[in-house]
# Entry
Amino acid sequence: MIDTASLAPAFDAVSAAFPGARPAWGMVLGSGWSEAAAGFEALGEISFADIPRFGAAGVAGHAGRLLWGRRAGVEAFIFRGRRHVYEGVGFEPVIMPVYLAKRFGAKAMFLTNAAGGVRKEWNAGDLMAITDHINLMGVNPLVGPHDPFWGARFPDQSAVWSPRLRKLLAEAAEAAGVALREGVYLAGTGPTYETPAEVRAFRAMGADAVGMSTVPEAILANAAGLEVVGVTCITNMASGILDQPLTHEEVTETTAKSMEKMRALVLAFADRFAAAPTP
Ligand code: HPA
# Structure
């Protein structure tokens, strides 16, 4: 479904905007996470709209800018905002951060998102390290002719979420004094939230959080040989747990309230990653 050759103009645009960039990692800051990278030295910035085939991020809570940043002497491409499958724009904008990270030689991808909490004993505002995922999007970004840019035809999925980087993340959380849960992220396409019956089904399937993103990027980054690590902000209890409707306002309100710990976690991870960018 992705025509990798057609993404080359995006690489050219970012190369021109960020001469000499050598990011060791890419980071996608999802719903409400855009400000979590304050603390990186800014080496350059470009709007998604100025990157061919990427386009403006059209969702509230998404800044829609790529920051070329540096922290502890190590460069990162920080995508402040993301494009989603539910926007109906095809996979190219969705996977652009992974494409650019890979083309520029990055070795790891840090993915963040907002999601509904499926576990009843968790609370809105909790942060969760992603240990694994369930793809219920009904689509896979690797469907289509095999392109070796993305690795093997049949990529192994037994360790998409890097145990090594998860350990660094856990150490970062501890050092920053941030409570961090661990769990399985399940992705649907959205844009509808789930029904209570779906949430009960997802719980039985082993999901801890449910959202509408992240899995396509994780599949591709892993296939392309990047280490993948991710954090979910549980912004609300999933449908049917509390007797109230779900709204996007609740999502952005919760991330705003949790911003201090989200930022502390990102920065503490960045410092540890800089000391050990490859296994
Ligand atoms: N469901 C799906 N996506 C979400 C949710 C949710 O409850 N909260 C934030 N993103």
